[in-house]
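pinging the channel bc i need a second pair of eyes. not urgent but kinda urgent?? the chain im working w is below, pasted from the shared doc
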Amino acid sequence: MKIKTEGISEVVLEVESMERAVQFWSNQLGFPIVEQWGYDNGQFAEESNEVWATWLYVGGPTRLGLWLPRMFSKADQKMKQRSVSSWQNLYDEGGVHVHLALHVQKQHFEGALTVLKQERIEMKVMKEANETRVYFKDTESNIIEFYIKSMAKDYAKKVAEN
């Protein structure tokens, strides 16, 4: 690898209802809330009447952000299309997330399935030769996957082979 990283630092999912998303991710799945932000006049705000962004710790080096949609002015939308180096503000929202996969160690996978069953979350379990994973949707229709395959182990071997 040209750049040595330690994995994903953060993933952000856009949500329609912060209350509903926090209920699902924190209360049902049990990921702890580590930070919450407001949003005021186009800027993030630590002090606010409304929670606009919630950060949850999901293990390892990774946090998950749940963000309400940002409404950009026409001027901001135009600026957002320009090169990042010319931005006057931070326009860190864009693109569509396809899905989010979280690594669950094999010995903890059945426990994760038990939580999903207890919380009555519809899921699809896929078992293949040495891989097991489960897919489900969060309250905002994002596709979520729990995967036992360790990319650190599997890909390190594949990178070494090349």
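so The two ends are 11 Å apart (CA to CA). and Residues 106-118 form the longest helix (13 residues). — does that match what u expected or am i reading it wrong
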